[in-house]
Inverse folding.
């Protein structure tokens, strides 16, 4: 939703990231599309590019369309020095629909959908490998791969040397999954991490009423680590014990008019330093 935070400039966003003590960023819609310009603006603030979201449509469009867009995305991230590419299947997704109820209208994949998405992801992984990069699949609310069972099926149907997993605390807890169980089960395949928290009261309301994903975000279902219901201590212990090497990206996904981004960035950074020692 570009309208959220449209009053905040790109320069303000990345300057406040650096000021809050972060050293990297994923790429949002405000960011310059020219690698040399973006790199210059990040370098002077001590920031690196961790990754960027890519929407695949392996279940609803010809593979050639996703392939063409993916190569362009891959080459941009490669030039920016990223090592992983965040991929999420958006065929029949309801996450971008303002009025579709999140829980009662969640899409389910058919046998054919599963075949298309898993074989397609492996082909994208081969394209990523050409640049010495990996794809990390983002399980996500409002999509065909959200629940524990769906994550299990994705992992079972794909080559563990090709398709890796993005571990997102907020989406797992919001969906009703156990993030610690997911991490411990798939730690060898997790190559990227998103830390965000959940406001329990908002999540309960969304589960019990016909509210869409985007409206849930606007209502404040997500917040930064340390401000919601998730205890990150056991999660961090599992991550640390596993020897994980990679980015942990902190997300808020809140309306900046309601939750000052810099204030919450500092709150998150302080909490993670105290909890994880990072």
């Amino acid at each position: 939703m570009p309208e959220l935070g449209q009053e905040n400039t790109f320069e303000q966003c990345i300057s406040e990231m650096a000021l809050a003590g972060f050293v990297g960023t994923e790429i949002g819609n405000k960011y310059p599309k020219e690698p040399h310009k973006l790199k210059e603006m990040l370098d002077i603030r001590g920031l690196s590019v961790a990754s960027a979201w890519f929407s695949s449509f392996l279940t609803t469009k010809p593979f050639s369309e996703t392939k063409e867009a993916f190569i362009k995305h891959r080459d941009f991230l490669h030039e920016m020095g990223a090592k992983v590419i965040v991929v999420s299947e958006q065929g029949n997704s309801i996450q971008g629909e303002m009025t579709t109820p999140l829980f009662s209208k969640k899409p389910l994949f058919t046998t054919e959908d599963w075949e298309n998405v898993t074989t397609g992801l492996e082909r994208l992984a081969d394209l990523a490998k050409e640049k010495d990069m990996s794809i990390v699949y983002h399980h996500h609310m409002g999509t065909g791969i959200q629940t524990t069972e769906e994550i299990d099926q994705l992992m079972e149907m794909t080559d563990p040397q090709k398709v890796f997993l993005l571990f997102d605390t907020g989406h797992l807890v919001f969906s009703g999954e156990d993030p610690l169980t997911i991490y411990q089960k798939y730690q060898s395949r997790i190559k990227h991490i998103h830390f965000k928290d959940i406001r329990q009261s908002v999540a309960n309301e969304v589960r019990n009423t016909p509210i869409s994903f985007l409206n849930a975000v606007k209502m404040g279902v997500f917040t930064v680590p340390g401000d919601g219901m998730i205890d990150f201590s056991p999660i961090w212990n599992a991550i640390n014990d596993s020897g994980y090497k990679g980015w942990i990206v902190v997300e808020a996904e809140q309306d900046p008019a309601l939750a000052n981004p810099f204030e919450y960035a500092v709150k998150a950074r302080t909490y993670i330093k105290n909890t994880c020692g990072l």
Notes: The domain at 10-276 is CATH 3.20.20.150 (TIM Barrel). Residues 111-129 form the longest helix (19 residues).
